[in-house]
Specification:
Elements (H helix, E strand, L loop, with lengths): L12 E5 L7 E4 L4 E6 L5 H13 L14 E7 L3 E10 L2 E11 L1 H11 L9 H13 L10 H13 L17 E5 L6 H16 L11 H22 L2 H6 L28 E2 L2 E2 L7 H19 L8 E5 L7 H16 L3 E6 L2 H5 L6 E7 L2 E5 L5 H10 L4 H6 L2 E5 L2 H15 L8 E5 L6 H11 L5 E6 L4 H10 L6 E4 L10 H14 L10 H14 L3 H4 L12 H11 L7 H10 L1
Parallel strand pairs: 3-11, 3-12, 7-10, 10-11, 14-15, 14-16, 16-17
Antiparallel strand pairs: 1-2, 1-4, 4-5, 5-6, 8-9, 12-13
Helix pairs in contact: 2-4, 3-4, 5-8, 8-9, 13-19, 14-15, 16-17, 16-19
InterPro entries: AAA_GajA/Old/RecF-like, Bact_Antivir_Def_Nuclease, P-loop_NTPase, TOPRIM_OLD
Pfam families: AAA_15 (PF13175), OLD-like_TOPRIM (PF20469)
């Protein structure tokens, strides 16, 4: 049965129910580069194994099927088709029940539109070839004398009369260039070389040309055909046919049909490194050295794949960054990104935050495991716009996917205060606590940003700290987040800065001066701060801006510096109630 797919095969999605921790699991892949992250045993390797089951025929063993389930279903979607493999647990073994191809609804619509077109010319050779191919795809009998219009109507009828999915049984996954590497192969140079450089040649060598008109496959089939004719001729010449006619009186001839099915050649490889003619024992080298060598070979493969005649490839890389130091991990990212840019597809699992932060948020899939079931988080809606927004806010992928809590603020003072006070209070950086403070100023796509945050984090992990002078944009963001009231923390009379008592503002800024080995100007005093605060309350002037006038003769006061001074030097009993409540949630 001949299936029609696009010339460049890309894996669009995977659906699994019943493979280890993958239960009712679905993941969509980026057509260029997908980075899959998660803790140990979150399901990363299981995901790669499921892809291999459908695309490579990896065997399924009883332990692969989820405990408590007796059936496993794995579906891989490519352009035009979904390939579905189903297995049952039977006693202590596993039996494959079916391997089907399901044309997508979009593909069926395209076929219907083309074949139902009144302008279709069934005498056109290209249209005839298309109709014959489609008929074979849907399991219709196609002979040399088949009526083309009858085939066309039969195809349309088969599509229109379907109930549910149109299933093509007993299928095979189309051949495609793919390279599958895990951490072990990155340390075994010979295995690595075979997978990267020889695997596709094992399949494609049959199409190499002996001359302008003949491939190796053509040559072999021609020789086999000649051999079968020779045998048939000898059966008659040597009188064997006459002996057979004793039992088969009407026998006139015996035709020998030899079936030739080209299979991948078994090509092995041993990579030998020489120093002045003497072999270097690579096995005695460290894992890091071996991985640097395989990285160099992968870099060479990248350059080789840029040759226009080279076919596109799907790379399945399972934790290739193990034992690589940071620079080598970045080199790995650059290499796989170059593959993706050249038209290849890369699906890579990793633990590395450096690799994770090197790609677009829309290319990251986070796996987590709870009660033995794997779940997935990713940006689903308008990922391109969200990616641009997050990067403009300085939000790394590790923050976006792994943060334990997220705090949204709108001012530089509070942003600096929270980070500095967390360090002073816990003796740990706020990032080590997996807490991300995001200054919401400049968010352009407020609905999209809010949706992205809530897609990747439960609403219970998000807090908003804002003052009475909050912008309309921040109020719109609060509305879209729709958080419980206790997570929307309003502070200050008008601004964050006026929530602090004058003696606290005075002392913390003086402490900052002392750290710098200087003294504040005489104008920086408690009474002046108190009077200014009172004036701003009645006049409506910005206290945060006016406060700088009391320090005009001293060291420059910026909002981040003031926030740092307050966060570092404030005492616990001096902290405004709202901020103390926030830190109760954080700590």
């Amino acid at each position: 049965m001949k299936l029609i797919w696009s010339d460049v095969l890309k894996i669009k999605s995977l659906r699994v129910d019943g493979f280890r921790s993958l239960v009712d699991f679905y993941i969509a892949f980026d057509e260029n580069l997908t980075i899959i992250v998660g803790e140990n045993d979150s399901g990363k390797t299981s995901l790669i194994d499921c892809l291999k089951v459908v695309t490579q025929g990896r065997s399924v063993i009883p332990d692969d099927i989820t405990f408590g389930k007796d059936q496993l279903s794995i579906s891989v979607e490519i352009e035009n088709f979904v390939f579905r493999r189903i297995y049952n647990r039977i006693n202590s073994g596993v039996k494959e029940i079916s391997f089907d191809a399901l044309p997508t609804e979009a593909f069926l619509s395209v076929i219907q539109e083309r074949l139902g077109n009144n302008q279709l010319d069934v005498n056109d050779q290209e249209e005839q070839n298309y109709i014959r191919d489609m008929a074979r795809t849907f399991g219709l009998a196609v002979r040399s004398n088949s009526n083309i219009d009858t085939l066309r109507r039969s195809i349309i009828e088969k599509i229109e009369n379907r109930t549910g999915d149109l299933v093509i049984p007993n299928t095979t996954f189309p051949r495609f260039n793919n390279i599958q590497l895990d951490g072990r192969q990155f340390e075994n140079i010979s295995d690595f070389f075979k997978e990267v450089f020889l695997k596709e040649k094992q399949a494609n060598i049959w199409q190499e040309r002996i001359d302008k008109d003949t491939t190796i496959e053509d040559f072999v089939k021609s020789r086999i055909h000649g051999y079968s004719n020779e045998i048939s001729q000898q059966l008659e010449e040597l009188g064997i046919l006459d002996k057979m006619r004793i039992f088969l009186r009407d026998l006139t001839d015996v035709k020998i049909e030899l079936m030739c099915q080209p299979k991948n050649l078994n090509i092995d490889a041993k990579v030998i490194f020489l120093e002045n003619g003497n072999e270097i024992n690579i096995d005695n080298k460290g894992d890091g050295t071996k991985r640097r060598i395989t990285m160099a070979l992968l870099e060479f493969k990248k350059e080789q794949s840029l040759v226009l005649s080279d076919d596109k490839t799907v790379y399945l890389l399972d934790e290739p960054d193990t034992h690589l130091h940071v620079k080598s991990q970045i080199d790995l990212v650059n290499t796989v990104e170059a593959f993706a840019l050249s038209g290849d597809q890369v699906i890579l699992t990793t633990h590395s935050p450096f690799i994770m932060n090197s790609v677009k948020p829309s290319q990251v899939r986070l796996l987590s495991r709870y009660r033995n079931n794997t779940s997935i988080k990713s940006l689903k809606e308008n990922p391109s716009a969200i990616t641009q927004s997050l990067r403009s806010l300085g939000v790394e992928n590790t923050h976006l996917f792994f943060s334990r809590q997220i705090i949204l603020v709108e001012g530089e003072t509070e942003e600096s205060f929270i980070s500095s006070h967390y360090l002073a209070r816990t003796q740990r950086t706020i990032s080590s606590g997996l807490i991300k403070v995001i200054n919401a100023q400049g968010i352009q796509n407020i609905p999209g940003f809010a949706k992205a945050i809530l897609e990747l984090h439960g609403s219970e992990k998000v807090y908003v700290l804002y003052d009475n002078d909050a912008s309309e944009d921040l109020l719109a963001l609060i509305s879209h987040l729709n958080l419980p009231d206790y997570q929307n923390l309003q502070i200050g009379y008008r601004e964050f800065e006026d929530a602090f008592d004058a003696p606290v503002l005075h002392r913390c800024w003086v402490e900052y001066y002392r750290e710098c080995g200087r003294n504040p100007p005489p104008s920086w005093c408690v009474d002046a701060i108190e009077n200014l605060k009172s004036h701003c309350t009645t006049s409506g002037d910005k206290f945060s801006q006016s406060l700088k006038s009391l320090n005009s003769e001293g060291k420059k006061m910026t909002k981040p510096l003031l926030g740092h001074a307050l966060g570092t030097h404030i005492k616990l009993d001096e902290i405004p109630t709202v901020i103390d409540k926030l830190f109760t949630y954080l700590c």
